[in-house]
Specification:
By secondary structure, the protein is an alpha+beta fold. The chain has two helices and seven strands. Strands 1, 2, 3, 4, 5, 6 and 7 form a seven-stranded mixed sheet that branches. A hairpin with a 2-residue loop joins β1 and β2. The two termini are about 30 Å apart.
Length: about 160
């Protein structure tokens, strides 16, 4: 079986969060998925059905993000898979005074994935990014409910 559809999951995930198209996460995570993120000094857990709101609340504090995800290492057994991928993520925030803050993370995703019909979905994710530069700010930053750095028509239909 080809790994392409599982590899595409990682690209879709990065697109969903970097382009603030959070509804796309429904095509990445199974609704009952268990997600645990330890990202630098931040930590949260949620289900797949809660992911949209968790990511939105967190990433709307960013003007721009860039999640560079390495090619996943994938093990497939029947209709289940396990994959790991390294990630480097930059989070750019704009403070109310106009200055810029950057929070840079390096770590990895560890995912249990299952086949549902023709679609692979993540059913369990452990994300750990122990290498951190800067800090994620929650006070005194501008909020960007949509893409701050361009218009939607530049990145999609």
């Amino acid at each position: 079986m080809s790994n392409t559809k599982i590899e595409d999951l990682y690209s879709l995930y990065a697109r969903a969060i970097d382009e603030k198209r959070y509804k796309l996460l429904e095509r990445v995570f199974h609704p009952e998925a268990e997600l645990q993120y330890i990202v630098g000094s931040q930590e949260f857990t949620c289900s797949g059905s809660e992911a949209t709101n968790y990511f939105k609340d967190f990433l709307n504090l960013c003007y721009w993000t860039n999640h560079l995800i390495g090619s996943p290492n994938i093990e497939i057994s029947g209709n289940k898979a396990f994959a790991t991928a390294r990630v480097q993520a930059v989070h750019q925030q704009i403070l109310k005074d106009g200055t810029v803050s950057r929070w840079i993370l390096r770590g990895s995703y560890h995912d249990h994935i299952a086949l549902f019909g023709d679609d692979w979905l993540i059913t369990n994710r452990y994300c750990h990014t122990p290498d951190e530069e800067g800090e994620f700010l929650v006070d005194g930053v501008e909020i960007f409910n949509g893409i701050g750095w361009t218009s939607k028509d530049k990145i999609s239909f």
